[in-house]
Amino acid sequence: MMQNINKFIKKNKIPLIIIICLFFNIAIIINYSINLNKPKEKFKEIKPLINYNKSLSKPTPKVINIKNVNPSVISDKTIYLTFDDGPSYLTEGILDILKEENVPATFFVTTRQIDKYSNLIIRMREENHTIGLHTSSHVYSYVYSSLENYFNDLNIVRTKVFDITGIKSRIIRLPGGSSNTVSKKYSPGIVTQITNKLTENDFYYYDWNIDSQDASGTLSKESIYQNVVNKIHSGTNIVLMHDSSSKATTAEALRDIIKYAKANGYTFAKITKSTPAIHHHINN
Ligand SMILES: [Zn+2]
Questions:
Q1: Residues 46 and 235: beta-carbon distance below 8 Å
Q2: Which sign does the torsion angle of CA 139, 143, 180, 114 carry?
Q3: Total-model pTM
Q4: Which residues surround ligand 1, an ion (CB under 5 A)?
């Protein structure tokens, strides 16, 4: 074969340099073809720090049909403003602020001044607040001396509210809350008996988990504001406040509390039978 190639080169007088170039070109092409067929070197596999498929399930976007959901379920930052011991001359101003801010609330009323301010009890109903019962007399020595006295007293305020508004309220707050120990002085075990009887008879009692501390003397409106806004948190916030006649600074702090809460994504609701029960530990 080589002889034939030599003959061909001599016959056609091809220069030696072209022959050499041709030879190198053929060698490069052959080498490239061999490399193409070689298996490629594998890169060392680097495992991710977190295996998302195994340890983290991909978040599925939650679809909430707003039309079919109770607003209190949508928000996990709910505030229930509650006012005990009214009505009094301060209740009107509180109702005005609630109306201007479009905020519902819950009033645990007594009968001490209910005849004088029956128009405010009517406003509570008309403006869609909850009218809860806090006993008629609020006299510890009477209501906590026996089960019979408690329910007689409760019945007086319940009947009064019904006469004014047509509402038979079943929302209750015990004077001093269900954790009070003052009642021990009048009848050991009375709060346990009362709360059991209330529950058996389809009444719903509520304590609080945010205390404005306005019951402890006369606090400045700044202190009441701080006591509330520093403690509100995600979830259910039942705020204890008072609208009895000595609690002017509570009414003064109210608008700022509402504005702070709104600015921080809280919504407001009134207590109903379906509100999560906030119960203190019963000490008597
Ligand atoms: Zn009270």
A1: no
A2: negative
A3: 0.75
A4: 84-85, 175
**What is each CA distance from 221 to 62, 94, 146, 229, 255, in whole angstroms?**
41, 14, 37, 12, 11
Q: Where are the domains of the chain?
A: 2-37, 76-268
Q: What are phi and psi of 83, to 5 degrees?
A: -125, 120
What pLDDT does residue 217 have? 85
Query: For residue 62, what pLDDT is reported?
Result: 31
Distance in Å, CA 53 to ligand 1 centroid: 56
Class (C level, CATH) for 76-268: alpha beta
User: Cα 77 to chain center, whole Å?
Assistant: 2
Nearest-angstrom CA–CA distance, 107 and 241: 10
Q: Are 270 and 112 in contact (CB under 8 A)?
A: no
CA of residue 17 to ligand 1 center, whole Å: 114
Residue-wise pLDDT tens digits, 131-181: 999 999 999 999 999 999 999 999 999 999 999 999 999 999 999 999 999
Ligand 1 centre from 72 Cα, in Å?
26
pLDDT, tens only, 226-264: 999 999 999 999 999 999 999 999 999 999 999 999 999
Structure tokens at 5: 């190639």
84 CA → ligand 1 middle, Å: 5
From ligand 1's centre to the CA of 85, what distance in Å? 5
Distance 260 CA to ligand 1 centre (A): 26
Number of alpha helices (DSSP H) and beta strands (DSSP E) in the chain: 11, 8
Residue 98's alpha-carbon distances to 25, 113, 256, in angstroms, are 93, 21, 12
Reported as type and span, the H/E element at residue 242 is strand 235-242
